[in-house]
Design goal:
The protein is of the alpha/beta class and about 220 residues long. The protein contains eight helices and seven strands, in the order ααααααβββαβαβββ. It has helices at about 5-15, 25-40, 45-50, 55-70, 75-80, 80-85, 135-150, 170-175; strands at about 95-105, 110-115, 120-130, 155-160, 180-185, 190, 200. Strands 3-2-1-4-5 form a five-stranded mixed β-sheet. A hairpin with a 2-residue loop joins strand 2 (about 110-115) and strand 3 (about 120-130). Helix 1 packs across helix 2 (about 25-40). The termini are far apart. The model has no long low-confidence stretch (mean pLDDT about 90).
Length: about 220
């Protein structure tokens, strides 16, 4: 068993918030959290070297991989309770969410929603898409529902996304929930001031490449 003081305090914190986790899961989770905090890395090898265990590097890496391969570890039971505890102080405040799609190692297509927190983006919920390319409305709504459920009560939410999320259905749904949306689009996107007006590329509205235009009530 590890004897690190940091491990002991980390394990106690996890036990307080992760009431559904098994004892064996708690031990390894605490070790990995300590390893990541000490190595300031997400690489398995570096995390393993920082684990407070008196064993070989290979054994420590194998333990981490077993944890990552454990299908019984879920966002709902092992991550969202910690995120809720961390975000509790945002109650009643303005909150910025970012919806984005990330391609990891050209094989894992991940749709993720993060929250702006202490000058960082903290992931709240994510879905591994079973296809390549852009996400659809159903997956976007699903991951946003999960993320919104983690936030404290009475927050005022603005959701940011890039041009992949330029869906009238998505933004209408967000407005029905009482949230604001901000969409970033590329310069060649055609925009018309009224439904009957001729459309022109957004970049023609801007004096130079560094300019930014904000369109309200679109």
């Amino acid at each position: 068993m590890p004897t690190s003081r940091l491990y002991n305090s980390t394990r106690q914190y996890l036990a307080t918030h992760l009431t559904a986790a098994l004892t064996s899961q708690m031990e390894t989770l605490a070790l990995v959290v300590v390893g990541m905090s000490q190595s300031i890395s997400a690489q398995i090898g570096k995390i393993a070297r920082a684990l407070p265990l008196d064993t070989t590097q290979a054994a420590k890496e194998q333990r981490i991989r077993r944890l990552l391969d454990n299908d019984r570890l879920t966002q709902a039971e092992h991550y969202h309770p910690l995120a809720k505890a961390a975000l509790h102080g945002l109650k009643g405040q303005k909150v910025q969410l970012l919806i984005d799609r990330v391609l990891l190692r050209d094989t894992h297509n991940i749709l993720v929603v993060s929250v702006g927190f202490r000058r960082r983006w903290l992931p709240l919920a994510w879905i591994a898409l079973d296809h390549r390319g852009q996400s659809g409305l159903t997956d976007q709504q699903a991951v946003l529902r999960q993320a919104l459920a983690v936030l404290p009560e009475r927050v005022r939410v603005s959701i940011h996304g890039d041009s992949e999320f330029r869906s009238q259905e998505l933004f209408a749904w967000l407005r029905e929930l009482g949230h604001d949306g901000m969409l970033g689009v590329v310069g060649h996107t055609l925009v018309a001031l009224t439904p009957d007006a001729p459309a022109s590329a957004l970049k023609t509205w801007l004096p130079n490449r560094d300019s930014v235009a904000y369109l309200n009530g679109v």
